NADH-quinone oxidoreductase subunit F
Amino acid sequence: MTDTLTPVLTDNWDAERAWTMAAYEERGGYAALDKAFAMGPDAVITAVKDSGLRGRGGAGFPTGMKWGFIPQDNPRPKYLVVNADESEPGTCKDIPLMMATPHTLVEGVIVSSYAIRANTAFIYVRGEVLHVVRRLQRAVQEAYLAGHLGKNIHGSGYDLDLIVHAGAGAYICGEETALLEGLEGRRGQPRLRPPFPAVAGLYASPTVINNVESIASVPAILTEGAAWFASMGTEKSQGHGIFSLSGHITRPGQYEAPLGITLRQLIDLAGGMREGHELKFWTPGGSSTPLLTPEHLDVPLDFESVGAAGSMLGTRALQLFDETTCVVRAVLRWTEFYKHESCGKCTPCREGTWWLTQTLARLEKGQGTEEDLDLLLDQCDNILGRSFCALGDGATSPISSSIQHFRDEYLAHLTHGGCPFDPAASTAFVPAGADA
Ligand SMILES: Cc1cc2nc3c(=O)[nH]c(=O)nc-3n(C[C@H](O)[C@H](O)[C@H](O)COP(=O)(O)O)c2cc1C
Ligand code: SF4
């Protein structure tokens, strides 16, 4: 069973002091740099295109194609910005990656910046994770001291400065244009597109914004080859990815596998659902991806198949809930999050997320009526596709999908006059080995 896993990014996470430059170089780290310099920037872009790598931040846009959009005839400086905000509920892959092996990301930044001809790059980290900020800062310092960053890197004539920037802590700052606003020192709110960041991004200059995992995947693509990467996964969703299992599972954690693996396989690898319990519902890619149920256990976890099943692959944040969980309560929690994180720029999301929580809270307490379900769907309708950015759309996903799959459970709250579940039962779970 274990050969289903393809540890590449996670391969050295358990090495002795894996986060240090010495440990990283011992395993061949920074070898991709010389390879990139020998190839030249255009060939690096071609290799990333050929690998089939698609953005690992949620939307799955082809990474090499995004790099190709940078207008090289534009005289302004080019920038690479790594999106390390990672604030979506359930999403928890980039932070462990940066803690375990920050140099994988730093090396990826250098190769990627070289490819798009950027001489300044930023890693925008979520402000609350000070331990990650410190780890990255130290890794960057080590890379400067070793000559991997700064002037004339490895004698190639290429210069790069890398700045670690801590955000102030807002989910919306993970949205790429709000992130740019934050990086420029303004309030984090999305920008109108066009112009797209590739044309006018940071400081109105051509900018590539990529997720941590996307950029960290680049060194291995260069050292192992585009064909090696493309040989994993499915026809249109190639390569490996980190699947983050959390919730009512025996061994929660990060499982790196080819795209297209199924949740059933992952649950087996993780020791099954907690003993004596069964899967009730799950998110394939964080709280803004529509909920799925046990009937979707064999859906290949790739962009196309999850889309065809009515959800989105998102960030592969697999949150698993067993039969002790009240779906209405879980959805209310997520909706409160979206209400809190709505940046307030547009009316459908600012007002709509407030109304959603009011209606849901009423239902959860068993005080609503059956018409409230239609009201909820109507409220979702007024947000989905009418909001300025995808935060508003995402807020509606758990609601509409839970009503689709669990309408009876909503109604049970009304007939029961409150929540028919004991919420304490869903939090009493202790993962195996946690008390050792
Ligand atoms: C509300 C919101 C939050 C987001 N948060 C993140 C995030 O924390 N990290 C991330 O990489 N992408 C996040 N995204 C997606 C980014 O806007 C963007 O698509 C991504 O960084 C592009 O990188 P990729 O092509 O490598 O996936 C978010 C989008 C939205 C709408
Ligand atoms: S959808 Fe929400 S988060 Fe996005 S711009 Fe509108 S108010 Fe802000």
Q: What stands out?
A: The chain is about 40% helix and 10% strand.
